[in-house]
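Quick one - inputs below.
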Amino acid sequence: MRGFHKRSFVKALSWRVLATVSTMTIVYVFTGQPLLSLGVGGAEVVVVKLLLYYGHERLWSWISWGKLRHPLSGLAVSRELDPEHLDEIHTRLEELGYL
Amino acid sequence: MRLFGRRKKRRACVVGLDGVPFGLLKRLAGEGVMPRTAALLRGGGLRQMRASLPPISSVSWSCFMTGANPGEHGIFGFTEVEPDTYRLRFPMFGDLAVPTLWDRLGEAGKRCAVINQPSTYPARRMPGALVSGFVALDLEKSVWPKEHLRPLEQMGYRIDVDTRAARENLDGLLDDLFATLETRRRAAAYFWERERWDYFQVVVTGTDRFQHFLWRAVEQADDPRHDRALGYYQAVDKFIGEMWDRFHQGAAADHEGEGFLMLSDHGFCELRQEVRLNAWLREQGYLDYETEEPKSVAEMAEGTRAFALDPGRIYLNVKGRFGKGCVEPEAAPALREELAARLTEWSHEGEPVVSHIFTREEAFHGPRTELGPDLVVLSRPGLDLKGTTRGKEVFADTHFQGMHTWDDAFVWSRLPVPDQPEISDLAAVIEEWLRA
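Output:
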């Protein structure tokens, strides 16, 4: 799971850089004022949105809906049966004449 | 040419009828007992099919659900022995060594709903939903995912009939068979609606139980339970009709019959006597026990050269393979030939006991072939081979009325099934249809 946290964080960081740069560019194109553009970029409260995005990502990672699960992920699961279950299987097979 | 819209999504629906022989299905359809089945058969598509070797549900259904041979999937019977101690063990779903059809379909992004599939206990994660069949014990461990457990409990779902009571009370067994089929029907309706699926499968195991205990009731018109017996097959036919109708309902339905498949995992015939292979091996001097009344082959004496497991699996007690092994590996081929020759000559009441003998190499292929029995023996119809260690008599009467057969299982499908199919051929046919 540690790998997924790291991925979520780096994803949040890269998206924030892209989103903030695009916001600043739009402000600059409309106003022609570089200082205002930088101010709006700062006003996006980079750190807060970064954390919000990270939190949002982690929350969705707990929701299984819409996720594709590897179909063979359960293949190696082999649960040992209790001794009383073994006796029960023995009895059932015997009842059907298989022993 | 399709310019707009998507091609209709392909689906498949499989109805398994455990142990229903080709001949019986054809006859009951022809005589009007199974009218919905008769309507399907009229359009063609029914084929006689070979079951697995040995012809027993755990092996045959494993072949169906993997498309593999026992030498590949590693299931050779309901029982195995631990090589060191000869103690019996029961292969479970976790012992299946290759992926199932629905595991593979899952890799292609398909989802499956599988109800009452034998030899899938305890249930495990899969792309879709699974309810394990025989020898499932506990419903809680038989259901994946767990969200379906409560609804199944609420509908009174039954994994199997109570075979304990069956021996003494055949009328009670019939009541139980009808009730269990009804819960299977309800479960099928539930999963049909609740699961998003590309592949749907439901297996009726009551037909196998019915035939073990009540074969004569359906075969003989003067049997006191004949009418109720036919009634059971009428109920099975109604269930088949419901599944067919559901499959063809709504906009997503496939063309008539495409993707719908019915099969049995082995055939059946009347049983007259059971034949205890271990008693025969003892009589012939290949096997001896340390105790007077052995409970299993674990009680065999030193010097035993061969033993049998149910139904007709013979193992040579080879040094290096088994704990008390005394047959030198280089002597094994000659011993196997000797045994095969004696089995071929073996007769009872003037008729041969054995119909087919397969060596391990003839019966199996794949990386686990070495784990299989040295010989697989099939008997003449009426004589049911057993791996029991009870009793010194080779031939014994039994309360069972029916026994498994190898070469008269059936498959009905309008998909391109081989002309002389084996049960392990079907998974590839279904997969090809769904992946195309």
